[in-house]
Amino acid sequence: MLTITVLYDNVAHDARLQTDWGFACLVEGLEQPLLFDTGGKGDILLRNMRALGLDPRAVRTVVLSHAHGDHTGGLAAFLAENPAVTVYLPQSFPAGIKDTVRQAGATLAEVTEAQEITAGAHTTGELGSQIREQALALETPRGLVVITGCAHPGIVEMVRQAQAEVGGNVYMALGGFHLRDANAGQINTVIADLQALGVRRIAPSHCTGDAARRAFAVAFGADYLESGVGQVFIIGAEE
User: pTM value?
Assistant: First the structure.
C-alpha cells in the first residue's frame, strides 16, 4: 500500500495548512519515505509537514522534477533539517542547486535516462527540450501512479514515457499538468489522449488551472480526485 500526501500546493484542501505557489508531496510505503519536489519556501514545507505529523528526518530520498524555484525553493531548508538523503535531479540542473546538495552533505544523483530509484519507484529520465523535467512513476497493486511537478514537456508525453519505461496500466496521474494557459480545445485533446492511454484516475493541481481541472472533473467523473495541500491518496490492492 502506498500513501501520497500533498505537502505543498497553491490549491487549498486542509485548512490547517498554508497554501503557496508550488508543489511537493511525500510518498510512503516504499522501502523508505520519498519526497517529490520541495515547494517554493522551506519554512512552509516544513511547517506543513509538522502540522501533518510527518517527520522530515524520516525521508531518505528526494526527487526534484525541474529547476524552477516553486519546486526547488524549499530544498536548502529541508536539507538543513535532514541532509541524510540522496537527491535525484535532472543533469541539466544549474550548478548552484547541485552545490546546495553537496554543501549540505547530501548525496547527489544526476539523472539523464529512466532508472529505478528505489524498489517500485522510477524516474522517467529527463524529458522535454526548453525546460527539462522528470516525472516519478510508482508501481502499485492498482497499476502505475505518475506524479509530475509541472509537466512542461506535456503531461501526455510524460505519462506515455512512464508507461513505456516501466510497463503496465496507468492507474493515476497527479500533480501539476501545466494547462493554466491552455484553451478549451487544447485541454480536451489532453484529456482524450490521457484516456486513450488508459489513465484511470486523475488528480490535477498546482499549475493545471481551474478551467482544466473543471474539464477533467467532467470527463473523469467519479475517477476525478480533488487534490490540494494536505490531500492524502492511499493506493492499496483493493478499492
Answer: 0.97
